[in-house]
Amino acid sequence: MKQIVLVTAAVVICSIFCNACSKQAGSSQPLESKWMVTEMPGFTKEELMKVNAHIDLRNPENSTGSLDCNHLFWKTTTKNNGTIAFSQVNYTYKYCEGQMAMESKFVEIAPSITSYKLEGHFLYLYDKQGKQLIKAINPAWD
């Protein structure tokens, strides 16, 4: 009887530990989600919300987003220790007069993103100096 209780306790503890390892500490949202961008250098929250600025990390091999006029796409690589890399960043080449600054800024900063933090329903993306480059919210949080 003691062995059954010990084995059951060990299984429960391992399950809890494995589940905790699959998410970053403090996170209640998976990284692999669609995220609404609420902060990015050079733009107000209102400007970002007006154009439905978002990034979609549900498919790491083909992450996508839209920050105004064009569609963005890239490859996302992550590790459980909070590191992240956006590579092969590109976008469609539709010209939209006066509306391309957000895409240009994202394409400029995306390769600099090296770490992330999930905090509740927020995603924070940082460069190697620890400077926050993007803040986003999971639109399905409530």
UniProtKB/TrEMBL annotation:
Residues 29-134 form the DUF306 domain. It comes from the Bacteria. Residues 1-20 form the signal peptide. Coiled coil: none annotated. InterPro entries: DUF306_Meta_HslJ, HslJ-like_sf. The keyword Disulfide bond does not apply. Keywords: Signal. This is META domain-containing protein. It comes from Haoranjiania flava.
